[in-house]
Amino acid sequence: MCGIVGIVGKREVAPLLVDALKRLEYRGYDSAGVATIHEGHLDRRRAEGKLVNLDQKLGQYPLAGRIGIGHTRWATHGAPTENNAHPHFCSGIAVVHNGIIENFAPLRAELIADGAEFHSQTDTEVVAQLLAAYRKQGLAPRDAMQKALSRLEGAYALAVLFEDQPDMIIGARSGPPLAVGHGSGEMFLGSDAIALAPFTDEITYLNDGDWVVITCDRLEIYDQAGQPVERPSQISRGAAYVVDKGNHRHFMEKEIYEQPEVVAHTLSHYIDFAEGRVRLDTGRIDFANLDRLAMSACGTAYYAGLIGKYWFERFARLPVEIDVASEFRYREMPLPGKMAALFISQSGETADTLASLRYCKDNALTIGAVVNVQESTIARESDVVFPTLAGPEIGVASTKAFTCQLSVLAALAMIAGRARGTLSIEDETRMVQALVEAPRLFNEVLNAIQPQVETLSRELSRFKDVLYLGRGTSFPLALEGALKLKEISYIHAEGYAAGELKHGPIALIDENMPVIVIAPHDRHFEKTVSNMQEVAARGGQIILITDEKGAAATTLETMATIVLPQVDDIVAPILYALPVQLIAYHTAVFMGTDVDQPRNLAKSVTVE
Ligand code: F6R
């Protein structure tokens, strides 16, 4: 999604803005731009594509100025051209925007009727035009801003420069986050603390509906009604993280290989290793007395939730209602008492997940959130936060956040099982022991399977379609495998419950459709083998991901069999995520795609 930065200070800002934008690259974007005010004159540089293009342009045509705003755009309204890139200008006003102005069409029509001329296809330009119209009516910048904000519907974070106010930036937030960074004689605006980390670690987050005026030495925050409000500042952890690839070719690769460490770190938060048991403190969520749990999330986080559903229902006998957040929020699901809600999100800013959370909150449910970004809106609006300790995930395709989400959900399902008296001490101890040993196994597996996966991926990169199959918790993993492959390699892939094969997708099977079967030797194994037979009988090529027992029990010829160590059911989906991720990663590398920033995708999806 779009990234915003703003700097008002004492140094030349154009290179600093570009540096900050580089730290926001991970969010996904397709054009970029900066604007500054120098000697009373507002000017901008914009470029299609990657920041390197903007950098080159600035090299050729430098921009002076000690105040400026910058933007990486992830196109929503209008193609990713230079002309649609932000900042958008109108009569000495510059605007950058993240989100969607939902009522832009009537606003645009109204402004055109009043004589405005539009120069882009974006929704953002209506904000610049609206501000210009109010300024023309004689309103001061702050009043114009407040009036313009009252007209906007949708989700937005904004940063605005006024040519006649060369020491002031106005920011606003309704939906996507916006943070103010406190410097010494300088102030900053940013979409997140990671962008501002080179400048400061003292951050004030705006609440939804807030807008802020920053000058080089102060900030004034106002709420929606225009009343001055105080928001606390905090020391952000964003600064502590070095955002680089280390010795890896891509962030995604680095993040895959970080999993043994971050999963161990996450598990240690929920498991008392000395006691060999899960920690029971779940704050306001009283698992013992729940009738049902509602869960929701998007994409990979949703698949983590689906696996969690299997665990909650099996180990805690707790029925789970789960849906993708874009459906959940509009489904008008009845939410009776004795129900709690759990939301899963890496970024903690996903618009649909946040809207689903608010729906549950309005219905008086206790809200829990499994989130990676602890300062995020979802974390702040939840009653109980269950952190994933994955560290910043920069690759657009989620990897380490997924396995950390699974680790938290596994622990929570066990905690719920213990609280509800449905999980015996023996089972809990066995599962804890299995989880404790898992990170070491992950390390071994990553190193052991890498050469085989590379060879296989070279083969896979020749195909146009791939099918993933699994049963039980391997079914959501099949969905995740297909998502991972298609989003970074652009090979069409589908995930199916293995039992569904004969209800339709079997029609697709031929020698051009490799089928990746995720099948640990668990209670579903024999059934999945039958489905593999059906594939083999129709000339389909099978890639089997299984364990030693599974490999020994299968006589079918496969294109490849990836053999993992034997593990407990609770560890299997976390462990099997590794080959699934590596297959997608290496295939994408062979295809030569932009692995960390795949086309059209954004890291933090703050629009519907
Ligand atoms: C896929 C992926 C996305 C996210 C989804 C939710 O690799 O990363 O499907 O999982 O956009 O994002 P968060 O977890 O930030 O709510």
And the CATH topology of the largest domain?
A: Glutamine Phosphoribosylpyrophosphate, subunit 1, domain 1
CATH class bucket of the largest domain? Alpha Beta
What overall geometry do the principal axes of the alpha carbons give? globular
Strand line-up across the major sheet: 3-2-4-1-10-9-11-15
Major sheet details = 8 strands, antiparallel
Bound molecules: fructose -6-phosphate
- The tally of beta strands, per DSSP, is 27
CATH evolutionary superfamily of the largest domain: Aminohydrolase, N-terminal nucleophile (Ntn) domain
Average pLDDT confidence is: 93
Low-confidence sequence ranges: none
Proportion of residues in helical segments: 25-40%
Briefly note the structural class of the backbone: alpha/beta
Level-2 CATH architecture of the largest domain: 4-Layer Sandwich
Strand content: 15-25%
Number of helices: 18
- Radius of gyration (Å): 25 Å
Distance between the termini: 12 Å
